[in-house]
Structures are given as structure tokens and as C-alpha cells.
Amino acid sequence: MSDLLKQLGEAGTAVWLDFVDRKYLKEGGLKKLVAEDGLTGVTSNPSIFEKAMGAGDTYDAGFSEFLGKADASVQDTYEAQAILDIQSAADDLRPVYDRLGGKDGYVSLEVSPYLADGTEETIEEARRLWKAVDRPNLMVKVPGTKAGGPAIRQLIEDGININVTLLFSQEAYQAVALAFVEGLEARVKKGEAVDGIASVASFFVSRIDAQIDKKIDTRVADGDPEADALKALRGKVAIANAKAAYAWYEELVASDRWQKLKAAGAMPQRLLWASTGVKDKAYPDTLYVDTLIGPDTVNTMPPATMDAFRERGTVKQTLTENVDEARHVLAEADRLGLDLPGITDKLVLDGVKSFADAADALLGGVAGKRVKLLGDRLNAAEEVLPEALAEAVKARLETARSEAWSRRLWKADASLWTGKDEGKWLGWIAAARGDQVAGQGLEAFAGEARRFKHAVLLGMGGSSLGPEVLSLILGSGEGSPRLHVLDTTDPDQIAKVAGPIDPKETLFIVSSKSGSTMEPELLRAYFWDASGGQGANFVAVTDPGSKLEATARKDGYAHLFHGDPQIGGRYSVLSVFGMVPAAAIGIDTHAFFEATAPMVFSCGGDVPPAENPGFRLGAILGEAALAGRNKLTILTSPQLAPLGSWLEQLIAESTGKQGRGIVPVDLEPLGAPEDYGTDRVFAWFGLASEEEPDGLEALAEAGHPIVRITLARPELIGQEFFRWEIATAVAGAVIGIDPFDQPDVEDAKVATRKLVDAYEQAGSLEDETPIAHNADFALFAPGNAEFASADPVELLRLHFASLSPGDYAGFLAYLERNEAHSGDMTDMRLAVREAYQVATVAGFGPRFLHSTGQAYKGGPAVGDFLVVTRDPDPDLSVPGHRASFGTVQIAQARGDTDVLAARGQRVMRVHLKKGGRGLPALVEAVAAAVQG
Length: 932
Ligand SMILES: O=P(O)(O)OC[C@H]1O[C@](O)(CO)[C@@H](O)[C@@H]1O
Known about the structure:
The protein is α/β, with parallel strands linked by helices. Helix content is 48%, strand content 14%.
């Protein structure tokens, strides 16, 4: 066998292998090269690991073992395997390292290419990898970008071996060579040793010729007058560039500055020739080895180049040969306008990008494998999309990948949205790992809560909907209180909860992020009074410094739990706002976060969008909305039905603004494909143990887009909280709005407050005149608009007759939220859907005001609303206020109706008369109206 590679090493150019693969290492491939070819080093990069790990099953056992211990992020899953390979290669090369006294025998592992623009992040990551690999013959590979330079200086000062990668230009090389020198000098200054610190500067070769030659060929083909001069440079510029770098290196090591370091024991930073596999098949495959041989250099070769050199390489001191000719080549390239500086600048950017692309592919591949290994520990999601939507989603996911959306979202980069203050609203990401509740004493609190029979939560929207989902889906633990959620001003509903409970046996959880929301404040006053002012029975959940905090302190509440001001209400379920009530009813919050973790990892910033369940779903929702499919229709198995109201708030309040967004449709019974227009997207939630309803498949077959989500067990519901939070934020980016504000909610609050304040003064609400009425109800139109008929059914007919495809009908009832009322609302929805094939929504007021109300006012102005009110009997007074709950409730209805109308929505209010037949009468009238 030829010993050309050995000869190459002896001639001063160390032979390194640019390749790593577990199978190859296991089968002794590397050891063989060391023994037979005098190999003294190995390099790796993200593309190499992508090829090794992204496909095939070589690493499956490793992944499985790693994930078997505990679930982990995709980055950690990949990195653990990469580190094992690097350690194994380092161990194979250890005898070389020992024999050569640390002058060679190194293995390189690259920092994440995503960090190429961040000095501090690069330093941190290099230190972390150095520690994790824990081998003296490791070189951490750092890109020689502008940000990389200072990092290299610091890392050398730290005493870490560094391989500087992606060097193309003389300037970049010289800058990192000086950074290396400065790092060593800093050590000397501190009296620290400099011997044993190794570094190489990886100067890329063939990529330069690939670019220059392309330019030359185009110009020659275009009949350039300098064609001959141009042709003479083909395949020469990269080598000339490398020779010039080496000449500068020789000057550097001869300088006094370097000699001082040398005297202190420093080893020079060797030039390493990288990208030495020829790209142009017309050149000899050993070209970039043969021509770059000289003392104190390295050539890292892909296996094919190494095999070629072993067979037909030529060993000769070529690097220092014909240097003048090399300089002439560079001068010619300059004279002929081939723009080497422009090319090398671009090559750095392209190099970083191509390593980032490779890292995306690698992490995407690992993510896919991780999902398979997790099995049903991760909730499944399956999508069936019509072709055009599928194409749009695919394109969006690719854009999102190349624009690093997942990393940017996790880094709270506001430019993903409108560039305002979105970055300040991403505290929910850390909260999903349990960080926000850590140290809040939830376990002890759960124990204390067991002395109560009931827990009553007073809160609205984000402060009530999550806890309600948890209590309805997971239920209370043995011996823990039952949760009743009050998010209303409806006197009947309040009485329903207040009646049966004994305040002495009840824990009251007053929950409001802002601490100033009207409903929880009125409810707090009511139950405080009812309990006789028992602070020991009250806890508050609120953001620091709120008015509620002051009340809790003054009234001696048993506990005060602080929220994170960087989490908006609708994203707060995995913070104290969901977890305090959860703990109160005996849900093991620690186990809950553990069950949620697989989704948090799966949606990580390190998981490229296409493989990231949150981003995938967000792209579907966003693209569907852009294509006019902006009615997200939520279908669930019976056990998961409570999730719908939480989702409604998240989706509607986050996306429904500036006339854009997604209108969620919850609790609308599943219909036949023809009952739906082309404005729908369906989301199905089911437990693996439950049957899917007949009719779901028919929707998919009829071309309606559908996403099916399956949970192995109810305890995995936390995963859906997180998946949908990410998806909503992503959909917001696609739609182009700020998913963390709620600009239109305030208007209804202002209108209500005006009415209530007037009432507090005058003792009555301003009179209104109905536009029509019958024995059961009266109809009101905002602004007392003129109407063509005095017949209520005819007016309702006209109201609904304006519905056209893409519109939606809404039924907003300021009544007790109970089964009978919900059933009546469903009947009205179905009648309208059957008649007009439009989406229908329903909400109980004022609960919906803090949820879907944002989208009804700020979202697409294609709604057709019927607001239902009545005079409660009996009413309930609020301690310390003149206005009763009933008065506040009707003021809320009137205020919001006016705002809806002002926003261009079609809206009518139906007031159910005392002594009339109530809601069933309206159901009849609506049925008659839409059939008429
Ligand atoms: O927790 P708070 O501050 O009382 O707010 C309750 C809800 O009201 C809203 O601000 C809308 O009015 C929601 O966004 C929020 O979840």
C-alpha cells in the first residue's frame, strides 16, 4: 500500500480527516488511518454530522438510550451523540497527541453555526463544549467572522484549543491570527502558561475557485476581450490566495512579537487547508493537496480526497514554491475585476448559512427521530390539508426556517411580529418549564387547601379559563376541594355558586393579573362580605404591585401569589394563574410539568419550523386565515370539550385585530361537509381511547382542512396549552399583527363604565326605545336605528338575511351559563348555519368580553350578532356599590353592543321580557326568521 499520506505528514503537512461517523469509528476506521497513513487529526462540522445522524439508523440506539433516561431538547439529544463521537475520535487520537507532546492529534467540534454573529454566545458555547467533551486534544471550532474574532481572542486566553473556521480572505485570516497572538499575550501577562495551547486557522480553498471560475466562464462565454488572461487564472486563484496567506504566516512567526511567545513555549497557529476536495471534475482530485504542502500546515481531507492522494498524490514542498507567480495571479485577478474581496465576503456569509442550513436539516432529522422514540408521551397531530393550503404552509415553513423563526421566537425577537414591545411578552415560554411557579410553595399550599370543601375562583379570561379547563378535564384530587369558577356578573350564576357553599369551608381564589378588572373586584367584595371578612379563606393571584395585592395585604389573605408581568393573561395558564388553582384542587403540578415537557422540547427554538409542532400548526392557522379560512372550528371528544373556551380566548384575543385574524368557533355541533363554507379550518381533539366521531373523515375527504390532535391521557393537556400558545404567536407573525395586545377590549370596558357611573349617580340606566317587541322579547338596535318593520320576526329575518359566505353569526347571551341556555343557543346556531352555511359563534356575557370579544370588535367585520339580555330576578347587590350585579351586567351588554356597531358589525339586542317564555321563544323566532 502507498505511503504517500505518511510522506505528506513528514513533509510538514499534517494529514487530517474531514469526516466523523459512529459506524466508521466503531469499526476502527480512524485507528486504521492513524496506524497506516500517519493520520494526526480529525475535523467535523454541522454538514458532516447532518450526513451521519440526520438519516439512517446508526444513531438510533444512542438516541434511545439518551432519551430513555429523561426527555431532552433536540439540540441536547443531537449534541450528546456528537460529543460521544468526538470523545471517541479524541481517544483514538490520544496516542498521537501524547507521542507528539500536544503538537498534534486533535479533533475539532464546531460551535453552533447559529451563533456566528454573537461574540458572547460563541464564547459561552465554546466553553461549554470544551467542558462537556473534556479531552485535552479537543479543538473547538469557531467561525472567523467579525463576531468570531474577539471570541477567539478570549477563548485562547482561557486556554482552550481553537480551530478557526470559514477563513477565505487574507484580512480575515490575519485578524484571527492576531487575535490568537493577543490571547496568548494576555495569558503571558497574567503569568499563565502558553505551552500546550493549540490552534489552527482553517483557510478554505476550493470554494474560492468554484466562484472565480464561474465568473471567468461567464465572461469568456460573453466574449470578454480579456478572455485569454481570464482563462489563464482558472483553477489558480484559490491556491495563490492560500500561498499568500502562508507567506504572511511565515512573516508572523519570524516576527519578534511571535518569537517572544515562542520563547515562552507557545506553539504557532498552523494554517489548515480546508475545502480541499475539488469541485470541478476537470481538475485532478488531488489538486488542493499537491499544491499546498509545506512545514507546519494541516490539510483536512474528505475520505475521497484522502483515498485519491494515497493513490496518486505528489509530495513536494509546493507551498513556498512560485510565490511570486501566486502574487501575480492575485494581481491579475484584481486587474481583471474578478473581485476576490467581494467573493470572499460572500463566501463567509454563504458558509455560515450553509452550516446553519445543515444544522437545520440535522436538528430536523433528530427531531423526527425523537418524536418516534417518545411515542405517546408526545401528543400526536395529523393534518389533512387541501393542496393549495398545503403548498402555502410548506412555503411558509421554509421561509420561517431560513429566517430562523423558531430561534427568534424563543429569543423574544419582536421583529418577528410588528417590532413593537412583543419581546416583553414572552415570559410564558419559561413558564411552560415550570420556572414561573418554582419556589412559590405550591406543594405546601396544596396541602393547606385540603382543609376546604370548595374552592371558588373569581377571575376573568386568562385568569379563569385555564383553571376551568384543568378542573373540568382533570378533576380534583382525593380529599381536595372542588373548583367553582365565577367569571361573570350574572346574578343567577353567582347565586348558583354562593347558595350551596359554606364560606367557612371555602377557599376563595381572587385572580387578576392587573388586579383592577371590574368583575373579580365586584365578586371579591361580594364574597368577602359573605364570608364575614375571613382573610384566612382568601388567596390572591396577581401581578406585583397591583391594587389587588394591596387589598390582599390589607385584608390579611392567607397567600399572595405573584404573576410574571411578562406574561399576558391568555398565555398565563402555565404560570401561577393556572397552577395555583390546580394545586388547590390537588393536581400534582410537578407531575403536570413533567407531562408537558415533551411538547415544550418539541416546540423548542432549536427545532426547525417544519418539524416543530407549534410552528407547523401556527403556519397552518396563519396561512389558512390569509386564504380566507379564518374560522377555526374546534371539535372535541366529550372529555376534552372544556379546552374550547380556553382556546377561544387565546386565538381570538391574540389574532383578532386591525380587521384581521381568526374567529374561533367552539361548541358548534359537527355537521355534514356541505354545512360548511370554504372559510373553515377544523381542529379535532380526542383521547386515544375515544372513538373519533363519524363525519370527521367526511370533512377531510370533502377537502376541508383538518388537524387532528390525539392525547394518550388527559394529563397531557398541558402540552396543548403550549402547542397552541406557540401556534398562536406564529399565526400572529404570519397574519402580521401583535399577538400579545388586546386593543379593542378596552373600548367595551369604557362604554360599560360610562353607563355604570351614570347609574351610580342617577340610580337608573338611560332609557331606550325598542324597535319592535312581542309578548316575549323586545328588540333594540344601537343608536335607535330606523327599521323597516315593527314585526320582531321580520326584523330578525332581515338581520340574518344579510349573511353571505365568509360571514359569521354570533349569539351573545348575558344570562346564566347553564345547560338549558347553552342548548337554546346551539339550536339558534344550527338554524342559522343550516339556512346560510355560515360559521356561528356563541358566548355568555360578560365572560366572552374578556375573551372572544376582542376579535368580535377588532377582527374581521363580517359578524352578525344577536345580543340577548334580561332583567334578572332576583338581582344581587354588590356591597359598597349602588349598581347591582344585574345592572352592571346589562350595562356591559349595552356598552359592548354599541361598540360592536361602531366597529361595523351588524348587531341587534334582544331583551327577554319578564313573564315571557324566555330564551325558547327567541329560538322559535330565529327558526321562523331564517326559514322565512
Ligand atoms: O387577569 P386580569 O387582569 O383581571 O384580566 C382578565 C382578562 O381581561 C382581559 O384583559 C380582557 O379584558 C384579558 O386579556 C384577561 O385575560
